[in-house]
What we know:
By secondary structure, the protein is an alpha/beta fold. Helices cover 47% and strands 10% of the residues. 41% of the residues are buried.
Amino acid sequence: MLLDTASLYFRAFHGVPDTVRSPDGEPVNAIRGLLDMIAKLVGEFAPSDLVACWDDDWRPQWRVDLIPSYKAHRVDHETDAGSVEAVPDQLQQQVPVIREVLTRLGIPVVGVPGYEADDVIGTLATRSRMPVDIVTGDRDLFQLVDDSRSVRVIYTGRGMSNLELLTDAAVEEKYGVSPAQYVDFAVMRGDPSDGLPGVAGVGEKTAVGLLRDFGSLDGIVAAAADPEVAMGAAVRSKLTAASDYLGVATRVVEVARDLDVGDYDGRITAIPDDDAAALDELAETWGLGSSLTRARKALAAAAG
């Protein structure tokens, strides 16, 4: 099980009331919400391995160089080290605690400099020799769904009480394209949440039709450039006008699959005494109460 960690703790932060506080009055709604999510996910899907994939770089410069609008609306300010994301202060102060709690629970936090959690997930899912469940609220990761390798997405977009399991058939039913076509579909449709403009005037229905007729974005671009190929004049014009964008967008939307993620052990095992004692201390300091108890119980059951 691969967690799109930031996707989950943002959802927890916005889904759990900010009245959930530590004994000292500090906000802990994201921490407790994430722990409750982990307890539910581990209890329901019983993974043998669990990895918290991390955004070491939430807006990699190499993606911005290709499409300058990429996540631009989420930038708070720029520094010499790169773009700083606009994150609510009450969430930002919880992130180091989230990382410490995950580590003490024995859940490795895995990130790669210059890359997003999506890229870590893409790499780990591609290399895995066991079935993979990807937990995310990000539709771009639908590109990794692959029945032949038992890779599916547990989609949190409708909330933790309405989880969707995305397989090949589910993606095709939902969007009319295969997971292998999802990147091309997303490039044409665009995604305001990521600052991807898409092809002006080409919505989901048109994108699906083009992929059905020509198979891939490369096939579509080639057809648009060939006056002998039957294609509506208006659509051809829109694709031609977006040629610069189409030439680079695929590299932005595609997740990396070949990163050096270093050594880690994702197996769910019994928590060592030192970490258990540290968790007890964290629970007391931050008032993590039943949320941490449920997560520890679910992980203990999964460890056998």
